[in-house]
Specification:
This protein has one helix and eight strands, in the order αββββββββ. It is mainly beta. The longest helix is centred in the first third of the chain and has 18 residues.
Length: 123
């Protein structure tokens, strides 16, 4: 019985340690496609990907496009009413924010890197 209690206590301690706070994502979690957020950071990666590629954003929410050492731009396809301005100048080593004021699906892509795309779904 003592060994069972000891093992149970160790398992509980390990579980609590695994669920504890800390780490880079504890204060700025990466949104998943099914999470509605009011703000998010989309990284334009050197691998020619937007990460995350899909974000569910609340009306009035803001996306900060984070451009690293490789130049990227952002163009919104089929600009629905309320689409933010495109980021037309190739940008690197900077962050540029856009606010989404109306519900809709805002697909975007990088004209510099064909196939580099993402979508913001505003609810």
């Amino acid at each position: 019985m003592r060994s069972f209690m000891f093992v149970a206590a160790l398992a509980a301690a390990a579980l609590l340690a695994a669920c504890g706070g800390g780490g880079a994502n504890s204060t700025n979690p990466i949104p998943t496609p099914d999470t509605l957020v009011t703000s998010a950071i989309v990284q334009a990666t050197p691998a020619d990907r937007f990460t995350p590629a899909t974000i569910n954003l609340a009306v009035g929410g803001t996306i900060e496009f984070d451009f690293g050492a490789v130049a990227h731009d952002v163009f919104f396809d089929n600009d629905p009413s309320g689409a933010p301005d495109n980021i037309t100048a190739p940008s690197f080593n900077t962050q540029i924010s856009r606010t989404f004021l109306a519900k809709g699906r805002y697909a975007f892509n990088c004209h510099i890197h064909p196939g580099m795309s993402g979508v913001v779904v505003v609810q």
